[in-house]
Amino acid sequence: MVYLEIFEVIKSRRSIRAYKRDDIPDDMVRILIDSARRAPSAGNVQPWEFIVVRDQRIKKGLARAALNQTFIEEAPVVIVVCADEARARMSYGSRGVNLYCIQDTAAAIENLLLAACALGLGACWVGAFYEDEVKEVLGIPRDVRPVAIIPIGYPAERPHPPPKRSVEEITHYETF
Amino acid sequence: MVYLEIFEVIKSRRSIRAYKRDDIPDDMVRILIDSARRAPSAGNVQPWEFIVVRDQRIKKGLARAALNQTFIEEAPVVIVVCADEARARMSYGSRGVNLYCIQDTAAAIENLLLAACALGLGACWVGAFYEDEVKEVLGIPRDVRPVAIIPIGYPAERPHPPPKRSVEEITHYETF
To answer: Domain locations in chain B?
Structure first.
């Protein structure tokens, strides 16, 4: 396995929506989740849960819940990332539920996406879906919120980088 | 500059709350923000804004707004990350404001923290602060929300890794 230097990974990571049929080995999936769980977490609460889906029928259900983004069901593996709101609420009340557990899981997702890129995999962060429908498809309990659907496979496309706002445009000094 | 392999960075990154007095060169700050802006963003909205603070009086104001976490004012550089809710709302309504712009900025923050670690810097993601007070200190407009305060400097401590939930504990297969 060839591992990449971090700035190379940060620069070359793309959202990949087309995948080869080849399956992803279990030990790669493990590396992805291991990378995710090393993200920082407010108060070390670690409100994240990961559901690894390979079952075709379930993937179809996820694609449907995600406004028929059919590339989801074409990936060999789909990881659904969830935030345990009960865990977040216990430590930090509403700020835990509405801010920290969203941030913690998002940081974990970014680690996962960078790890996927470093392993030569392609992945896409899907945020547009009906949460209740995803919960029903996956049997997710009431206090747990699905926050992202991430289809993963060997890339079958090489998309151009999207236009990004420049450092100058987004940087302020001392005050806004 | 020695750049690190990505899995090494993901594993070795710690929250650093004690800093040497040495200043951080501008080109390093630029690399941090450049890494942040390369994060994925729902619909490529890129709702992030970064305020780079070196002024001691302003850093003191931030520390006060952050429940007197005085290590904030001891860092040579503090970057305050903001989410532009107007930008998020325009594209995605309330889901943009309450979910996507929090996720996008969190992914950007994680990139920034990994980049800092790779550059030999120490940083800490501070989420506990009075948002209105931070907005006043920094003159942040109404539709922009401060989502994190990140003090950064050369590390003056080497904290032990916090206990993390295992891969097994957080991984589910096919359903929750």
So the answer is: 14-39+49-80+105-157
Average pLDDT score over residue span B10-24? 97
Which pair of structure tokens corresponds to residue A55?
A: 């079952």
| The model's pTM | 0.98
**Predicted ipTM?**
0.97
d(CA A18, CA A22): 12
Closest C-alpha among B105, B121, B127 to residue A45: B127
Q: Which CATH number fits domain B14-39+49-80+105-157: 3.40.50.670, 3.40.50.300, 3.40.366.10, 3.40.109.10?
A: 3.40.109.10
Name chain B contacts of A175, Cβ cutoff 8 Å. 51, 58, 138-139
User: Residue B172 and residue A55: Cβ atoms within 8 Å?
Assistant: no
Note the pLDDT tens digit of each residue in B49-73.
Answer: 999 999 999 999 999 999 999 999 9
Asked whether A154 and A20 are in contact (CB, 8 A), the reply is yes
Asked if B115's CB is within 8 angstroms of A52's CB, the reply is no
